[in-house]
Batch of 2 targets.
Target 1
Amino acid sequence: MRTETPPLIRLEEYRPSDYLIDRVDLDIRLDPHATRIDATLALRPNPAGIPDAPLNLDGDDLHLVSVALDGAALAADVYTASPAGLSLLAPPQKPFTLRLVTEVDPTANTKLMGLYRSSGVYCTQCEADGFRRITYFLDRPDVMAVYTTRIEADRAEVPVLLGNGNLIESGPIGDDRHFAVWHDPHPKPAYLFALVGGRLGKAETRFTTMEGRPVTCAVYVEPGKEPRADYALDAVIRSMAWDETAFGRPYDLDVFNVVAVSDFNMGAMENKGLNIFNDKYVLASPETATDGDYAAIEAIIAHEYFHNWSGNRVTCRDWFQLCLKEGLTVFRDQEFSSDMRSRPVHRIAEVRGLRARQFPEDAGPLRHPVRPRAYAEINNFYTATVYDKGAEIVRMLRTLIGAQAFRAGMDRYFADNDGRAATVEDFLSAFATVSGRDLTAFARWYERPGTPRLSISGHYDPQGARYTLRLAQSLPDADGQEGPPLVIPVALGLVGASGPLTDATCAPVRDGVFVLDRPEAEIAFEGVTEEPVPSVLRDFSAPVRLDLGLTDAQRMRLLAHDSDPFNRWQAAQDVALRLILEPDARRMEAFAEALGRFLDGEALADPAFAALVLALPSEGEAADALPADVDPDAIHRARRDLRSFLGQSLRPRFKRIDAALVPVAGAPYSPDSASAGRRSLRNAALDLLAAGDPEAGAQRAAERLADATNMTDRLAALATLALIPGETREAALADFAARYADEPLVLDKWFAIQAQIPEAGTLERIRRLQAHPAFTLTNPNRVRALIGSFAFGNPTQFARADGAGFSCVVKTVAALDSTNPQVAARLLTAFGSWRRLEKSRAAKAAEMLNGIKAIPGLSRDSADILARTLGGG
Ligand code: TRP
Ligand code: ZN
């Protein structure tokens, strides 16, 4: 049996549903192996649909117990049913009810879609198409219903019963059982349905909305871990307050619940009133979570909460509009984090993420428009492009129309589409209306895949005191032809020898932004009295690749004097990137000198920013900058040499930083961004010191490990030590494992650090770790920590010339595909850049990928990724 290319669903084929469902009444009896779902659906023909059409309900792996129409059992000849669907051949052409009883086995559900059990806790995951694994349904987001859910279970096994909306009734049944009834008054698509049942502890607090509604907010976790839920709960409250002040959006139910589960396919899910989270993004204590974990928890709690408006109150008409909720909600959570933390530092972190994940995706065979036009498996489109480039589009829109019109447009969008399933066109039309602008050309950002290239050159005329910039954009279509131009907001300014040239003027530049909406443009600044350095794409005003051909000296002027923190950071990155791609001793020295001056001047004034300046572009980013023939070993060596050189030549500075940032003895750990910034700079200094002098570095890192009073410092020291082969490293790794033997989430960090060691022995280490008692293929976090970190975070070993790294990942995909296809397919995307590798490695990758094709019964998820990875250019 050979894997076929799965059939495509196309945007242009969208049709409204022939039937609608207004109300859903569920009665669910939880049982480990035979959970019974008794569903009553209130249906009616859709006036916008085709009259007399058959009713085709979706199903996936369902076992039908009984079906009745308007109270009467259905005759066998009026319907067909299979695990994959139920059809009524001639449904009534007036409102009617359908009562469906199905039975599912939550314990056997390894796909973690639909109703499943995670460490004994019953939970659901319905986005994108998991509800059809619970009951037969019109499982599409434009079918919105009001849900009432009665849950019944054994009281000892399942003391906590949670559903969407508000709790309206609960009580005992006899001695052993109990029930709860939840009602959600807000109509919603099935993908937002959720229930949870289990033995859970909670942290709880109250919040009063701007409308005066009292809300009980709770975070449910494994009993005993309640103190680790406090930070997430605090993030909930801050998110609620922020959405009111920043967007005027209050919460709309009496309760808001968050539940942490340990087996989860992604980060978290925004089910109405009942967000379900991967516990990695809830649980935090100074002993178990790093500063990065705290920041991620804050961001993801906010993200899911913000979906209550951008996703739930206004949902998507169909899955092609996924960016409508995801891109917008990422933009909103980024704004939240920027307000909670340092805005420039956060912006740099966002862009690093975009370049690490979205740029390579947009440059490889898995590229797709932010609004895809066709898909075989929607779960494969929860991508960096939809989420992160989607957020960049919203950000550009705000830059183009201004913050005030943007806010008015958001208000308009929410007002016009509340309770509806909307499209990207609905979104844009709200902004077009309030701003009076024509956004037709701007909308191309949603349609055109690939990262545009923006080329800029400058010319100075000292006699005329005039500086001219020539800008050109390029984004070829699949056929190599230049497509219609995009609307690119280019934030820019000029920088003189001692600072920004504030007197220079240029009419087309408004509020520091030039809008490039043609293939090319030339703009001139007047009153320029010295030769400036252009600072272009400030704050990364558009998701493009910039060709600006500055010299190192010009870049160092930006690092020293630009008013835009992003471009100061970018300037140092640009120099470092070139030094990795084309090593040069003289230029390396000059770079070290400039960095030294920078560190002397202000490292301690903004430690988080300084730490980012010291973080050189990753090996992945260097690979991404090359046109083809990528040799990961060469990139690794060049980057290692640069780090080593900087470690040696800046050693006194790093030692000074290290000493200046010693934490106050006895001071309690605080995850706030200023404290985290100090830790990040001190740990960056430690890491570069070790790069410059591995022997002394190993010693210092081992001491730091012993002294550490929090996971941030401990893990940073371990990561530094992991790059230095020897006894000290192995002893530290063993110690760490013993210390956290009962902490799966901490052992994930330990798996990840080892999986990323850039040494030939790592594959053997991974084989050993796969047999470690804490490792299991059934838990997605474990798989991502060990195999995911290897595939996505260890370029030299994943792409080993002998193909053994590819083989390791392919074997995991093969072993996982039948039990959890979503996680398997995600892992397979690590091959996305295989064609850009040098020939022998690319040949090995192709050989491995072709080998997967032969796996019998390969999932649609993996088959789709495979077909596109091998197919597209
Ligand atoms: N909608 C979720 C978010 O981004 C993510 C999500 C989509 C998801 N599909 C999922 C989470 C499947 C878990 C499992 O907020
Ligand atoms: Zn989301």
Target 2
Amino acid sequence: MKPVKVGVLGLGTVGGGTVNVLKRNAEEIARRAGREIIITRASAKDLNKQRICDTKHISLTTNPLDIINDPEIDIVLELIGGAGPVKDMVLQAIANGKHVVTANKSLIALHGNEIFAKASKQGVIVAFEAAVAGGIPIIKAIREGLSGNQIQWLAGIINGTGNFILTEMRDKGRDFYDVLAEAQALGYAEADPTFDVEGIDAGHKLTILASIAFGIPLQFDKVYTEGISQITRIDVEYAEQLGYRIKHLGIARKTDTGIELRVHPTLIPERRLIANVDGVMNAIVVKGDAVGPTLYYGAGAGAEPTASAVVADVIDVVRALTSDPENRVPHLAFQADALADIAVLPPEKFKTAYYLRLHAEDKPGVLADVTKILANHQISIEAIIQKESFGDETAIPIIMLTQTTLEQEMNAAIAEIEALKTVTGKVNRIRLETLR
Ligand code: HSE
């Protein structure tokens, strides 16, 4: 059979890694795919730049359209990233009848509904395993491996940079900005690192996971995101003393009233496997009604881990080339006409437990005032510790863990606590999930 011809847009970290993996494992890949897969063309902004891959036998261009409009190319790999001009490139490739494989999470999270609709009309596949959690085959696991289940919730460490920062803060007592600078130097961070630390990158990935888990359209604009820049070493230490780790989690949960989509720092019990996922590694727990909790762990970024996912998608596309488009695995796991319009809940309707840290005057009755406010809002306290004051501060830290409550009750309680004359400054609140 004729080899399948692939064109690569972008020869950076992921593009370079993909060229290397496809070349190195060519023989094994052909045995799996049933056909030889060769990269014949690639585009890059600067052709003189030093690369991590060998581009011998690949025709290079600076213009991605040369590849997109080349009738010889069967599959286009979009490995440029970002949601700007790349969207038009992908739509053009689809219009030209080409299958597309992308590692681009923002593109899929923001424009996936439109892209998949156009791809389905053209009978082509747009595959995106590499867009979420790098080398972990989490899309395939949820879309295919767990397709007999009703997915109840999923929770994941889906940004390696953020996890690296929190791990270094905890293990080495390092400061936030110091670790962020190292993550940038090591090439883990996004071009704009606020995407990592403010939860945008994780929000993109969560949007995709929630869609394929619950059969809902992609809706990034409804994801609640909170970053890790407010997490202090003190909170990391108190959490540890209480038997918890702070992780930046993406959480999607189906409740009776709607779906929670949220990214925020979260205390989780240190005995959970996912609490022990450190450094740049990613992990996702997916709870299905039949299978129970399942855990997926691996490298969430990097040249070859991400290439592993890209190449797997290419092989899937090659295997499906001769199949009837109507009978392929749907892009978003559920049939396109069966996507459900389930409400995504606003943050006030989230149900979660909390870690609270506040500073109060060290005198009788202060703690009683605080606990009374919580009780008035039906918030039950799970644990409480009061610390001695540091230095000559008159206010002492009080740390509390609460049971699960409605977020709007917690918002109201915090406002009342902050208004107490005996309480200084803001209440620091971090959500807590037991992940049972
Ligand atoms: N900046 C991302 C991360 C890269 O740190 O996880 C992979 O999407």
